[in-house]
């Protein structure tokens, strides 16, 4: 059975590109437009990994990450931050919030898939 | 009351008044009436100068207010239009790129499916055209072999049937021998009968035996004749069968030979076609892989829409702030009663705080630091620096992944 990955990004084209890469590798994908919308998708279904942007309206990625870590069903779900942010201070903030990896956009699909395979829940 | 206005015309009135009063007093010999007259002239001059200065100050105050008001109006009129145009462009670009991403995605999926099919066909279990050709040749060779074995069996059977002809000849010889024996026996019986007659009554028994022998000889002759007839019939049948079998065998051998030739020609043509098809398939597979790679890179490039969209959103929001900043500036000038220096530091600072990307910060830094004496985060944009930053081009797709 295919594993499920949640993509969170306010850009529809980025969700599209990431979705293409993940579906091509055999994963099922669900999408959230921002942190708040993504939280509504975490209603108990199994999610094996989350890929989230940082700068989003309504709820940014760091806040979303902290909220996810408060949910018992998802606190151990690995989260990859996929963002245009490249400053070390921001990376550190993501690390402290519980992110497992930080990928700077634009990304090469092969590299992202490598990170997914490394971190995704069994 | 605004005394900031100054002009040479307003300064001349008091001077002339004082000079006129002094000259009048001097001309009148500094008498009391002359002094009074001179004082009045001087006061008139001073009053005129004061009134002039006051008018000038009020005029400049009105100019300042209208200038600041016009600046406010200028920004209030332009900024929303610029901002909405930028936002409209950003939205249209995002919609178009999203649609383009979706189409490229569908192409990528179809190419992937096609490549999987062609890879499976090419190699897995010999289902390629070459494999089919080889297996077909093998199976057809097997059929030809079976036909050949059948011919061989028939030839063996023909040999056995032809062998029967030899037995028929032997039987015919035996029948002839029987006939001769029958004839001899019959002659012997006749001679016996004659001798029995010569023997008189003593030969009657012998004559009876001789008659029986003649009868038996006659039956034997008749039986022999029937046997000969049957053997001749069988012999004819065997000969006919052999002839037919030989003819059939010859026909089958010719048909098999023709079939082998035809099969070989068909297999050769099929092999040539299969080789050509295989080459074409390989080429198509390579091209499909190349196209798949190009589509993948195109999808990477389309990610730049996200970066551009962010930059445009930041700039648009900053432009929207311009009317409010000018309003604050107008209040500042009104409070001070004079024009104040207009600083870009507030807006540039707000813009800088929205930056997420290294190239945004680089452009800001190079643009702001270009003019001497300007602060790094203030000052006017250096168009050359901005152009240099922009012409560096979009950064390549990142391989920067940090694992925590």
- How many helical elements of chain A? 5
CATH superfamily of chain A: Response regulator
Helix content of chain A: 40-55%
- What's the number of structural domains of chain B? 2
Question: What's a quick, concise take on this entry?
Answer:
The complex is a heterodimer of chains A (122) and B (404). Chain A has 122 residues and is α/β, with parallel strands linked by helices.
Q: Can you offer a commentary on this structure?
A:
The complex is a heterodimer of chains A (122) and B (404). Chain A is an alpha/beta fold and 122 residues long. Chain A has a single domain, classed as Rossmann fold (3-Layer(aba) Sandwich). Chain A is built from five helices and five strands, in the order βαβαβαβαβα. Chain A has helices spanning 12-24, 35-41, 61-69, 88-97, 109-119; strands spanning 4-8, 28-32, 49-52, 79-83, 101-104. Chain A has a five-stranded parallel beta sheet with strand order 2-1-3-4-5, sandwiched between helices. In chain A, strand 4 (79-83), helix 4 and strand 5 form a beta-alpha-beta unit. Chain A is globular and about 35 Å long. The termini of chain A are close together. Chain B is mainly α and 404 residues long. Chain B has two domains: 8-123 and 303-342; 129-266, Methyl-accepting chemotaxis protein (Helix Hairpins), CATH 1.10.287.950. Chain B contains eight helices and one strand. Chain B has helices at 8-27, 32-123, 129-198, 204-302, 304-336, 345-353, 358-368, 383-391, and one strand at 401-403. In chain B, helix 1 (8-27) runs antiparallel to helix 2 and helix 5 runs antiparallel to helix 6 (345-353). Residues 1-5 and 371-392 of chain B have low confidence and may be disordered. Chain A binds chain B through residues 9, 11-14, 16-17, 19-21, 23-24, 54-55, 83-87, 90-91, 94-95, 99-109, 111-112, 114-115, 118, and chain B through 94, 97-98, 100-102, 104-105, 108-109, 112, 296, 299-307, 309-310, 356-358, 395, 397-404. Strand 5 (101-104) of chain A pairs antiparallel with strand 1 of chain B, so a sheet runs across the interface.
